[in-house]
Amino acid sequence: MSVSASSLPQTERKQFTHCGECDALVAIPQRLSKQQRALCPRCHHTLAVGNHWSLQRCAIIALSILILMPFALTFPLLSIELLGISVPASVWGGVWKMATENYPYTAFLVFICAVVMPIFFALLVIMLRLAQLFKIKPRNVLLTINRIQPWVMLDVYLVSLAVAAFKVREYASLEMDIYLIAFVFTALLTTLLFIKIDSKALWNTFYPSQQATIIEEKNYLQNPPHFCHHCEYSFEQPLWDKKHRPICPRCHQHTERDNNLMLQATWATLIAGLIMLIPANLLPISTVYLNGAPSSDTLMSGVISFIEMGSYFVAFVVFTASIFVPVGKILIMLYLLCCVHFRWAHSIKWQMKLLHIVHFVGRWSMLDLFVLSLMMSLVSRGQIISFSVGPAALYFGIAVFLTMISTSLFDSRLLWKIYDKSSQSHEKK
After folding, report:
1. For 305-341, how does the pLDDT look when each residue is reduced to its tens digit (9 = 90+)?
2. Any long-range contacts for 343-347 (C-beta under 8 Å, 24+ apart)?
3. Where are the transmembrane segments (predicted)?
4. Under a CB-based contact definition with an 8 Å cutoff, are residues 142 and 206 in contact?
5. Contact between residue 388 and residue 251 where contact means Cβ atoms under 8 Å apart
């Protein structure tokens, strides 16, 4: 059950917080039941939830993930039969094969998202539990855990396993190894941890005296609370660093953000991603050697080959993740940035839906690199069939990383400021 937070004070004392998406100052209940969550009345962004797992339960899930990790990442997940020889494929094997065959930078991108970040995420959750037991204030751990979540891509890798299986089956017979179960459980547990872990509740757990601001109604308009975008904490008075700059009293991060500087960084990463996407679509992304004869595929020709094989669903998945999502994400971000620069007062609900879509689908573009990594591990050189990564792979991976960074830098509150000014001008008329 959703509870709409009040945007106006109704009692003498209220607990106030800023909405991280639209910057509205709203009052929320101090306690929510397990069936309730507090929503911003203006943009419907979730401000607080009553049903979140305890840190102890989250740590147990994280420990289970770490126990499964060696089996999920280093042992064979798939294998094919070539000339009577079984050729296995594992997550680590694909990364190593790619790195040792002159594609170290592409291998590094896969290594970060498929190996380093999942392990690091589980370790951070366990560190939080240990900090709770030893009564330590883990400020930096709490800040880090939010920033790395989009880069943990085991769920994307799980889908890439299915795509690689369809791609290989036309060349050789494919077998599923028992360790695939460990990888599936690892991916599912990681996704479950994403859903159930609540960063706002964690901040309140470790800093109970610094949850939400409680102010008198008479001071509501005179002294509206400040807001920290890093830990989403609303407070009455900031602290000051040595250079006399305001910092959040909870996470000690600077509260002042230079909107022009943030927009420049968003533009820079987006344009760089767009430039990288051009060779990523024009150059070959993979090459298959059949009896010594090379056959290269671009992103689009790979989709066409799946269609010719009759695998229409796989073709749809690959087209969506490899072509439609990267191009669509850039077009949406260009539109939203133009809305900010040219003050286009279009439908704010439509703009926010587009931004949410970009945040959700952006990471799925890494599917192609994961498929390439698996193919490198499955189809080795020196056999009748061999597989090689093309030059487009690195450009494509860099484009995905840059566009994800660009999306994370964009501040949705700039759109709401334009909406507020437009609404005020219409009211005056």
Report:
1. 878 877 788 788 888 888 898 999 999 999 999 999 9
2. 343/418, 343/421, 344/418, 345/418, 345/419, 345/421, 345/422
3. 60-85, 105-128, 148-166, 178-195, 267-290, 310-337, 357-380, 392-410
4. yes
5. no
